[in-house]
Design goal:
single chain, Rossmann fold, two-stranded antiparallel ribbon
Length: 337
């Protein structure tokens, strides 16, 4: 795993989280040292958000400023996964094309390849935008994000077998009794269905439409934020989203980077998957609270003491070590009681 000059805000067994300008921090990483960059930058929305987002007019140029630095740190077999939410033009029921402009310019000006486009469908998303959907009722709710899977080469590291989905009940029956369910032959569509179609491969190949509800409500992160009275990051994506691409595009021991970490969902997913990770976030308070993603259930008193010391810490916080100390104290308290 690459080391940087800047001291991390905190570390875990596998990762390091840094506060600062992502462009400056990217410059400190070694060339071709990262296997996967996956991130969800602040979207090009018309209204200013508390977590910071660029003006829609300048958004594409702003995001393009990260193209060369990201490409420099990626390994030749590495991938860059970019989650972008849609937006409307100001005062008009017309969709912005900014996310498509981002894709075209990344590929045409910086020679990234579009390995595949994905779409994240969040069925739990509330109807929006209010003016066109709720009030005038002339548009459907916007519940799909575009996700561009970009790469430096035509053949980035990838293995779909690591993210297979469970077979449907019908497919299970077909595998069990293939002779009564289908006959090998060429279909009208041109697909040649052979006798190997009924082979059990351990699961079905997932589609490029990822249906993942964003319904985090009782995670340790949110519980701990509430317990110490800090505001959780308002724009979090579900951990299953980065987890899918981390499993799909990396091997254990590879390095994953998120350049707009927010509450560091990516780092938590990478940590659980046994990948090294690096997180960049300009807002210290958001990144500091993201440590809660790496803590299990602990006593409120111990959590409060941990948070108090973290707020005024001038050095790197070793989360794994502090977590172990809190668990030991909790076990002692149970034994002593």
């Amino acid at each position: 795993m690459s080391t940087t000059i800047t001291e991390p805000l905190y570390t875990t067994q596998f990762g390091k989280a840094y506060v600062g300008d992502s462009l400056k921090l990217l410059a400190e990483l070694a060339e071709e040292s990262v296997d996967l960059v996956i991130t969800s930058p602040p979207f090009a929305l018309q209204r200013q958000k508390e977590y910071g987002n660029e003006n829609q007019v300048n958004y594409v140029d702003w995001l393009l400023s990260f193209a060369e630095p990201v490409k420099r740190v990626l390994k030749p077999t590495g991938s860059f996964v970019l989650d972008l939410g849609g937006a409307y033009e100001r005062g008009r029921p017309v969709r912005s094309l900014y996310n498509f402009k981002v894709l075209l310019r990344f590929c045409e000006e910086y020679d990234f390849r579009l390995a595949e486009e994905f779409f994240w469908h969040n069925p739990a998303k509330l109807p929006s935008p209010i003016e066109w959907v709720n009030k005038r009722k002339i548009r459907a709710k916007d519940s799909v994000n575009t996700i561009w899977w970009l790469s430096k080469s035509d053949f980035p590291k990838a293995d779909i077998r690591r993210v297979l989905t469970p077979y449907s009940e019908r497919m299970k029956k077909l595998i069990e009794d293939s002779e009564n369910f289908y006959r090998p032959k060429k279909r009208p569509s041109g697909h040649d269905i052979s006798d190997k179609f009924a082979c059990n491969n351990g699961g079905a190949i997932p589609p490029n439409l990822l249906q993942i509800p964003n319904t985090e409500s009782n995670s340790p992160y949110l519980r701990h934020c509430a317990a110490v009275g800090v505001k959780a990051h308002p724009a979090r994506f579900p951990e299953k989203l980065p987890a899918f691409f981390i499993q799909f595009l990396t091997d254990p021991g590879d390095t994953v980077l998120d350049i707009f970490a927010g509450s560091n969902t990516t780092g938590a997913a990478a940590d659980r998957a046994g990948r090294y990770w690096i997180a960049f976030e300009k807002d210290r308070s958001y990144l500091l609270a993201s440590m809660f993603r790496f803590l299990g259930d602990v006593f409120t008193e111990e959590l409060g003491a941990f948070w108090e010391s973290a707020l005024f810490s001038e050095g790197t916080i070793e989360v794994a070590k502090r977590q172990q100390e809190m668990v030991l104290m909790e076990d002692y308290a149970k034994y002593d009681g």
